[in-house]
Structures are given as structure tokens and as C-alpha cells.
Design brief:
The chain is an alpha/beta fold and about 200 residues long. It has a single domain, classed as Class I glutamine amidotransferase (GATase) domain (Rossmann fold). Helices cover about 25% and strands about 30% of the residues. The protein contains 4 helices and 13 strands. The strands form 3 sheets. It has a 9-stranded mixed beta sheet, with helices on both faces. It has a two-stranded antiparallel ribbon with strand order 2-3. Strand 2 and strand 3 form a beta hairpin. Helix 2 packs across helix 3. It is globular and about 45 Å long. The protein starts with a strand and ends with a helix. About 35% of the residues are buried. Keywords: Hydrolase. This is Gamma-glutamyl-gamma-aminobutyrate hydrolase family protein. InterPro entries: Class_I_gatase-like, GATASE, GCDPHdlase, PuuD-like. One of its GO terms (molecular function) is hydrolase activity, acting on carbon-nitrogen (but not peptide) bonds, in linear amides. It comes from Campylobacter coli.
Length: about 200
């Protein structure tokens, strides 16, 4: 089964060329037992998502690039536009959706959440989940301060910003840490819940 993944947009420095890319960490993640039944399918921004929707069982909105309203530029604008199309298609077609870091932010923004600049979010830190806490990576300069009415929080940082959430009625989750990087799987309970949704949609 394919899981579609949106990609980071970068500009080559030696000569101008806009590139879509994924860290090899994603390939390593899909080799783990947790993802053994799935194959990642990188999504190109040059191909309308309507052509992918019948091929994928779920979608991950990956990290990289700021949201355009936080750091306006052409590449962020392109990502925002495409990922909003993905969100709306997943809602319409009931395709399970997971946002990672920037991906969580674009989902939160779509559902009228408040995202603000925060310090001390580019390092390992404690995350509080139910009655537990665990250490995870963190690579973002913007944090989710408040969720929109359709979303509910699952995890918090020590400063009370939201580290994970889910939609109250739809198969949509957001995680602010990078599951594909070191210390990204120290707690997999939320990730397993999302993966179980994919099995239910088979």
C-alpha cells in the first residue's frame, strides 16, 4: 500500500533549479516494522493531487519550508497551495492524513489555529502525553499556541504549546516532532493510532 508524502522544496545554489526532495530518513523509516506494510510515494507539486488520490491509502504532509504567512516566499506559497488541496481532498475522500512539523502546522492553520514564533523549539525536549512524558526531537521556530475548534490536543511541550493533535471527527492527526529522525519514535502511540486508521480504510 502506498502512503503519499509531500516533499521539501529547495533551490539549488550553484545554478538555479527548484527541487523537490525528501531526506533519506523517510526511506529508513519505511524499513521499520511499524511501516512494513507500506511504501512511500513522493508527491510532486507539478502533478495535481487528484491523479494520486486513488493510488494512496493515506498521506503524510512532511516538514521543511515555513508556512507562507509566517515567511512569505514563492516556494512556501507553492507548498501551501498544494497541501491545502491535499487536505481538502483527504477530507472529501476520507483519506487518513498525518502532518509532521510543517505538515502539522498547515493542518492546524487550515482549521483556524494560532501559530506563533517560539524560542527553544530547535532541540530535544520533553513532551507530555496523558500521564507520561518522553524526550523527542524538535526542529521548528514556530509553535501551535492554540487549536481551532475542530481539533483536540494530544501532547504538549513544557511551555504549553501543542506538540500533537487530532481532528475531532476526521482521520487527521498532526505531530510537531519528526518521526523520521533520531528520537522521533520514542513514543509511537499516536502514530499507531493513525496507522490503524489506514487498515480500517482498506
Amino acid at each position: 500500500m502506498f502512503i503519499g508524502i509531500t516533499q521539501r522544496l529547495i533551490c539549488n545554489e550553484s545554478y538555479y533549479e527548484e527541487r523537490e526532495c525528501l531526506a533519506k530518513d523517510w526511506g529508513e523509516l519505511f524499513n521499520k516494522d511499524l511501516f512494513k506494510n507500506f511504501i512511500p510515494l513522493p508527491l510532486s507539486y507539478e502533478i495535481d493531487f487528484s491523479r494520486y488520490k486513488d493510488l494512496v491509502k493515506a498521506v503524510i504532509l512532511s516538514g521543511g519550508n515555513d508556512l507562507n504567512f509566517l515567511n512569505p516566499n514563492a516556494m512556501s506559497k507553492k507548498r501551501d497551495s498544494y497541501e491545502i488541496q491535499v487536505i481538502e481532498t483527504c477530507l472529501k475522500e476520507k483519506i487518513p492524513l498525518l502532518g509532521i512539523c510543517r505538515g502539522a502546522q498547515i493542518i492546524a492553520h487550515y482549521f483556524n489555529s494560532c501559530i506563533s514564533p517560539y524560542v527553544n523549539h530547535v532541540s530535544k525536549h520533553e513532551i507530555f502525553f496523558l500521564e507520561e512524558k518522553f524526550i523527542s526531537n524538535s526542529f521548528h521556530n514556530f509553535a501551535i499556541a492554540r487549536l481551532g475548534d475542530e481539533l483536540e490536543p494530544l501532547c504538549f511541550a513544557k511551555d504549553k504549546t501543542i506538540e500533537a493533535f487530532k481532528h475531532k471527527y476526521e482521520n487527521i492527526f498532526g505531530i510537531m516532532w519528526h518521526i523520521e529522525r533520531e528520537d522521533g519514535l520514542n513514543n509511537v502511540q499516536i502514530l499507531k493510532e493513525w496507522l490503524d486508521l489506514i487498515k480500517e480504510e482498506k
